[in-house]
Amino acid sequence: MKNVSRRSAIATLSGIAALGLAGCGGNTDSESASADGYTLVNDGQLSVVYSNGFPPFEFSTDDGSGTQGFDIDLITAVAEQMGLECNILPTQKFDTLVPTIKAGGKADVCISAVTINDERSAEIDFSDPYLNSNQALLALATSTYASLEDFDQAGNVLVASAGTTGQTWGEENFSQAEIVPLDDYVSCFTGVSSGLYQGAIADLPVAQYLTEQSYKDLKVCVEVPTGEQYGIVVSKDNPGLTKAINEALAALQENGTMDEIKIKWFGTTEGL
After folding, report:
1. Do 8 and 93 fall into the same domain?
2. Is 39 helix (H, G, I), strand (E, B) or coil?
3. Same structural domain, 118 and 11
């Protein structure tokens, strides 16, 4: 089926080795974790939830046995910097991620291109920002759409990944077009490609990656300067962990690892 072939194409075209479901890193014991001022679901492990289908941030490996992407590389490096093993848990729907961290007990953190905003910050804590982003409006490459007004027409159905800031932005800014949330970006792009929907709203880095790598029949028609930043999601009950993650992010920026990961997945560090 078309959706399956698109997923395969994404993984094949990435050409980058998978990290798999579990990252590398030195173990630590419960005493050292306690001394660092934070708690973990499992001693010596940083347990991570995410949502698959967000290339190049999180998506399946070519054989389907694991997960790869910018966020997976980054959180693995963060765990290693903290002296922990990175335990990547099974994928979840995006709109369940923040509630999972808020509820506690399953995972220590979430990383999944989650935009820092006031609504989410009322429920959970964020790390310092690790990437900049805007929104994008996409349509078929043969379309003549070139403005927000072109998309916001009665009868147009625009899709966005459920629970994302793209969905929120569309609902707040479009009065004529219908905004429909889908499970992930791959489903959104496949629907537009097949002609089922007139357009999609997506984070710009995802839109650029997918239109360059797999969905070449689509194009970014409009870039929306929303000025978003992504952060790692942590429970408000675990401020010591947020502090430790921020220290790890700062160290990765200082030692060049952050730029290496950005170049690997985006080919540049400019604007990110």
Report:
1. yes
2. coil
3. yes
pTM: predicted TM-score of the whole model, two decimal places: 0.82
Q: In this structure, are residues 182 and 191 in contact, taking their beta carbons and an 8 Å threshold?
A: yes
Side-chain half-sphere CA neighbours of 31 within 13 A: 0
Residue from 136, 137, 113 nearest 126 by CA: 113
What does the CA dihedral 100, 181, 174, 225 come to, rounded to 10 degrees? 60
- Each residue's pLDDT tens digit, 98-140: 999 999 999 999 999 999 999 999 999 999 999 999 999 999 9
Q: How far apart are CA 135 and CA 206, in angstroms?
A: 9
CATH code, domain carrying 28: 3.40.190.10
Q: Where are the alpha helices (DSSP H) in the chain?
A: 2-14, 30-35, 70-81, 97-103, 118-121, 148-151, 165-173, 185-193, 204-213, 239-254, 257-266
Q: Range of 141's domain?
A: 134-228
Write out the two tokens for 226.
């929303």
Q: What is the DSSP letter of 95?
A: G
Same domain, 116 and 178: no
First to last CA, the chain: 35
